[in-house]
Amino acid sequence: MVLISLLMRRVGGPETPVETTEMVDACRSLLELMPPGYPHRHAALAYLGVALSVQQHPSENPRVIAIFRESLELFDEAIRLLPPGVPFNVQYRCNRTAALVQLAECTNDRTFLDQAVADLRALRTENPGNASVDLWLGMALQKRGERIGRPQDLDEAIPLLRTTMIDLPHDHQGRMYMLISLGEALVVRGSYSGSHRAMAEGADMLRQALDASSPDMPLRGVGVLAHAANQLNIAVREQRWDLLDELIASLRELLSATAEPSRVKAVGASRLGEALNLRYRLSQRQADLDEAIEATSSAAAIDTGNVLDRVRAARVRADSLQLRYDAHHDEEDLRVAMNVLDGARAELPDGHPLLASLNHDFAALAIVALARTRDSAYYVVARDLLREAAEARYSPVKARLVAAESLLGLAVAVRDDATSAQTAQLAVDLLPVHAWHGFDRADQEFNLAMFNQVATDAAAAVLQNDKASAKQALALLEKGRGVLLQQALRTRADLTRLRERAPQLAKRLDTLRSELDGEFDDEAQAAADRRSQAAHEWDRLVEQVRRNGFALFLEGPDLRKLRRAASAGPVAVLNVSDVRSDALILTRRHLRRVPLPGLTPAAVRERVTAFRAALDEKPDEQGTPAQQQAAAAIRDILGWLWHEVTAPVLAHLELTGPRRGGRWPRIWWCPTGLLAALPLHAAGTGQPGESVLDRVVSSYTPTVHELVRTRSRPRPPETLRRLLAVTVPESPDTAPIPSASKETRLLAERLPGTTRLDPSDSTPQRTRDELLRHAWAHFACHGNQDLANPSQGELVLTDGRLTVLDISRMRLDHAEFAFLSACDSALGGKDLPDESIHLAAALQLAGFTHVIGTLWPIGDAPARRVVQDVYAPQGGDRFEPEQSAFALHRATRALRERYPDSPWAWAAHVHFGP
Predict the structure, then answer these.
(1) What is residue 213's predicted lDDT score, i.e. its pLDDT?
(2) Where is the CHAT domain (predicted)?
């Protein structure tokens, strides 16, 4: 027994065949020497079971399956022979469940996994707090969660594995295996759910596993493979293409060091092919594609006995073949790729999470064949597979959205209106799920950015149908745009009626929304776990409320309620899509569409890029040739906006200027996509009557629903209707703002009761505190927008900053008016324009009914004049926020008179609100 114990310490697994074979032989010899009633026979049986279980990698080879079945029988016999009170009961039962997990991997029979999990749950109940039981349960759940696609298993496994990991000594021989198990669980959970935080933590675990290993360690190859998979994810998410070179080099090294055919060699070759495919897409370097074809072919030639290995390798090989077909149009490549994927699809059981991705890949090949042959049978195949993938509730939401987006494009291209309408709704319904409110903000934004044209394309697809309803298109836009805004508003909904019927339920929802609407430490995994748990419970309780008499609880408004947005003037929702572009014009009585054929995403992107470039040149009619050219470019863009966007809308509404009595008509612009970065209110040609500014008073709204909400906000108490003036004329790393102090001094003189914060007092915390005591706020400070990460846009204050995310989390129930005399305060992010993530929208979400902000920086003198004119009393003895849109319109027209040929000086300010 001593010899066996010593051998056990040397056994590392299938990669150490000499030690494992020696161990098996020693155990069998010992058992032959032990009579049936020998007291320690149970230990020898258990040792032999362990030796057999580590002798082979799980595979479909009948000999391997027989070995694991024998191992299971040995553990059963050892447990049966165990005398009462002997402390090996837990250990033997854990080992038995390990054999069950291995049999599940060999046979693809999930009943073995179910039995293992059930046995471990029972063992955990009998032995609470036992680290070994928690460890084995975590690993069994991880295997089941990954193999059959049960995210809830991974959610349960990860905390168990993480806790065990914390308690495991750093020099423990199983630490590397534990790191790999936890890392893989996190990466798989992240890929299923879209949580990049989980994937990042998994990457850290896998990196630790590699750092803790030496080149000759048996498990090092497994660690390299797991780390490689995650590095590919990071490279794609962060566009860190430099990681590909490092990754390809490490995989080549691993393969050259792995001489014999094995699972490590097969999976490594497949991973190498995947990395090379990606690098080929970037570089179009033929050598990369040739090597990828060779690597994926060698991977296919090695049978690991694992169906998931084969399926993943098939996807990569088919991708390589399609890339070569695209380059050389060899029909044999297309045929082989389709056969490879068809075989992989046949290997997976119904309901497997990988099926959606496989169906999408096969459909993509069918679409290629359709384009080549014009055979409509390929369309039917592609349509049916993409629909199946998009509707696959068992698959990751990302895979479903990819399929839905592809199907929408395909159906639109062939004018299959029924399919496009159905798919449009499905795709938009998936967007809030992909940006689930239990994720941290960075994950939500990244997940939405991946599909930032789905809502507009869905609406356009519906409008392409001659029988389509503008109502359905508007509903799609309202659900698929401003997703983060909708989530935030749901957690702030009025629960008065619910409190009357179910006070305890309302109380619990109040607690949960405080957690969800609060600030979580984005660096703390425990905080992320708490947020996820709170979001799960919130969703469950909302469904419970809806089943108990509140069917529309926290649902968005229907069209009848949306018409309230147009109570003071029309709302023009400007949908921009490659499918078609239209203005959806909402009035108190009607919803009409006006085609905008000259408006395309490419045309908008080109104008936005040119507009920002011209602003960077500091346009000047009398300046350098470059500045004069920039000035001309801006005027041309305003003319284009007039002809292609605003003039058709105003003509349809017959808005030509002030009505009788001098009352100006109003309009609310709701642009989609990057169109939100352009000044629609300033569109015009310079010719008489051809200017938005001469026809209407313009305001903006992120969504129609948001305008309905701001219209319904109550007037704050008179005691709070006074101004907070925040003054920060100078801050580190920014240019001085000479007018800041002058602005706030002027406001203090003009508006009695103003609280003017001097620079030394204008700190983030003091500003937060004072906002609770003032209904009006004026910020005379620098504003910065991070176009790549718009939630980190900021107001630069003394000794700190207030970010877009900070402001959006505030609850200012009595706020009414805010003026952002700060740069870029109404400019959203480049990848998430439809989420309206900027300072002005954040202030509206926090509670302000009216907000004035800017689309770009302007000079000190024009900025000061706008402030003076906006706050000037009109028809009364004091400033009234309800008139702020008219006040800004007057100020802008006055500034245009002063700088008629310089729209960059007079058109930057915009108004949000009713």
Answers:
(1) 66
(2) 637-913
The partner residues of 854 in beta bridges, in order of sequence, read 909
- Rounded-to-integer distance, Cα 207 and Cα 258, Å: 21
Rounded Cα distance, 399 and 284, in Å: 26
d(CA 785, CA 841) in angstroms, rounded, equals 13
By C-alpha distance, which of 911, 821, 818, 827 is closest to 864? 821
The mean per-residue pLDDT over the stretch 856-876 comes to 88
The residue type of 428 is V
Domains of the chain as residue ranges with CATH:
1-107 (no CATH), 267-465 (1.25.40), 501-547 (no CATH), 559-705 (3.30.420), 713-912 (3.40.50.1460)
Nearest in space to 389 (alpha carbons), one of 369, 408, 414, 412: 408
Model confidence band, residue 191 (pLDDT cutoffs 50, 70, 90): confident
Token pair 């709302």 in the structure block, residue: 571
Nearest to 394 by CA among 199, 187, 158, 151: 151
What would the 3-class secondary structure string for 640-706 be?
A: HHHHHHHHHHHHHHCCCCCCHHHCCCEEEEEECHHHHHCCHHHCECCCCCCEHHHCCEEEECCCHHH
pLDDT tens sequence across 724-744:
999 999 888 788 888 889 999
Q: Which residues contact 25 (CB under 8 A, 6 or more apart)?
A: none
Query: Tell me, what amino acid is at 303?
Result: D
CA-CA-CA-CA dihedral for 555, 556, 559, 565, to nearest 10: 140
Q: In this structure, what token pair is assigned to residue 237?
A: 């998410």
Q: How are beta strands 850-854 and 782-784 bridged, if at all?
A: unpaired
Tens-place pLDDT, residues 765-796? 999 999 999 999 999 999 999 998 999 999 99
Angle at 8 between CA 4 and CA 13, to 5 degrees: 135
Per DSSP, helices labelled H in 492-590 are 496-501, 503-516, 525-547, 559-562
Edge to edge, the sheet with strand 800-803 lists: 782-784, 794-797, 800-803
Residues in the chain: 914
Strands, E assignment, 171-268: none
